[in-house]
Amino acid sequence: MTDNKHAQEHLTSTKYGTRGAPWGWQESLQSKTQEVGVDFDHFIECLRLQMDDEKMAEVFHVPEKTIFHLRNHFEKYGIDSMVGWD
């Protein structure tokens, strides 16, 4: 049995069902903030305080458009996008 065939049988066994294990389908918000040099915890705190994009851009020394995209990701997908079992 090849490794690929073994993996397919393993994921579709009764232990896991036919849906497979959950996985992320996008990069997490934490990964995205890290990639652009924005402290994740501080970013979340700024969102909680309802700080606008312009002010957050000043705080994190990044373009306002960067904050816009991070905020958009948070509002659309949350902190992490998981696909699979609920």
> Number of helical segments?
5
Number of strands: 2
Shape: elongated
The structure class reads mainly alpha
Helix content: 40-55%
H/E order of the elements?
HEHHHHE
Distance between the termini: 32 Å
The biggest sheet amounts to: 2 strands, antiparallel
Tell me the strand percentage band. under 5%
The gyration radius over C-alpha positions equals: 19 Å
| Widest sheet, order of strands | 1-2
- What are the low-pLDDT stretches, counting only 5+ consecutive residues below 50? none
Give the overall average pLDDT: 80
Could you explain how this protein is built, in words?
The chain has 86 residues and is mainly alpha-helical. The chain contains five helices and two strands, in the order αβααααβ. Strands 1-2 form a two-stranded antiparallel sheet. The longest helix has 14 residues, at 64-77. 9% of the residues are buried. The mean pLDDT is 80.
